[in-house]
Amino acid sequence: MLYGLTRPFIFRLDAEKAHRLTIRALRLLPKKPVPKLAPILAQEVAGLHFPGPIGLAAGFDKNGEVPDAMLGFGFGFVEVGTVTPMPQEGNAKPRLFRLAEDRAVINRMGFNNEGQDKVRGRVSHRKYRRGIMGVNIGANKDSADRIADYRRGVVSMSPYADYLTVNISSPNTPGLRQLQSPKALKELLTTVRETRGAEGPPIFLKVAPDLAEDDPKRIARVAIQTGIDGIIVSNTTIDRPDSLRSAHAGEAGGLSGRPLKDKSLEALRAFAKETKGKIPLIAAGGIETVDDVWDRLRAGASLVQIYSALVYEGPGLAMRLNGQLAKRLEAEGVANIADIVGTE
């Protein structure tokens, strides 16, 4: 209700300014206790205990400022970042656009963040480490050796992350998606895996939805061969559906939100077909209702992540989805959420 009342004011602000004000407000508010979720929602994924399947995707908390505040809103896990070795400003402003008519967002942020040293110092002093926090790592735009940047990210953030996400899927860093090619991907994931060692946190790979027909097969094969612990499907898209109505539809960058729903679900199904349960999948992209969550779980995802839907629904969305999902599982006679994963 509070978000519904304040949203008209928030939407009158520039999108990026509104986001920064949100982060500042969350830093100032007293930390809410982490709510207890229905036991039916808990499951083990990649060796970690997730109290609920609804996660906060990377991009909201780029600098690790409010992970515990967001856990207090009922997220089963939060992912901070993307974090790069060196601080960088990102792309020129304006670079974040609401497409309200389409319940979508376009961003071309360009991995703007304060750098690993600053973020590491911040998350190493978490006062309320009572939930799962992942760290999304990336490469600097002007890096001469991007694989070395990911290696640095593993070394720097592993001691403080419950899991690491290797992000090679942003459309806003030129050439980054080239790391999804078979040779480059195998070199990258092998390096990341060896750098982490046997005792480090699980490693997830985040892929783009804009893939050729055979991409899921070869990416899945490399991920399994190199021992990666999970795949996040997917990031934003460079496609622009004809259905878009907003005046911002032509802006460059990655599109997220409701128009991405079908494309990301199709990509998830493709990866589920190729992985055959050998590696956990995490769904992202266009998720905003309990039906969306249900479809992702049945298609093969063990967990889901949301972000753009929060722009339109507010931070209470996670708890609403948790409650609705628990009721639906009980109504369907399902003992635990893990039992419906991949049943499509």
- As residue ranges, the low-confidence spans are none
By CATH, the topology is TIM Barrel
- Structural domains: how many: 1
Alpha-beta classification: alpha/beta
The strands making up the biggest β-sheet line up spatially as: 3-4-7-8-9-10-12-13
CATH architecture: Alpha-Beta Barrel
Strand content: 15-25%
- The string of secondary-structure elements, in order, is HHEEEHEEEHEHEHEHEEHEHEHH
Q: What's the short version?
A:
With 344 residues, the protein is an alpha/beta fold. Helix content is 35%, strand content 16%. The protein has eleven helices and 13 strands.
Features:
alpha/beta; TIM Barrel
Fold topology:
Elements: H1 2-12, H2 15-28, E1 43-45, E2 48-50, E3 54-56, H3 67-71, E4 77-83, E5 96-99, E6 104-107, H4 116-123, E7 132-137, H5 146-157, E8 163-167, H6 182-196, E9 203-207, H7 215-225, E10 230-233, E11 254-257, H8 261-275, E12 281-284, H9 290-299, E13 303-306, H10 308-313, H11 317-331
Parallel strand pairs: 3-4, 3-13, 4-7, 7-8, 8-9, 9-10, 10-12, 12-13
Antiparallel strand pairs: 1-2, 5-6, 6-11
Helix pairs in contact: 5-6, 6-7, 7-8, 8-9
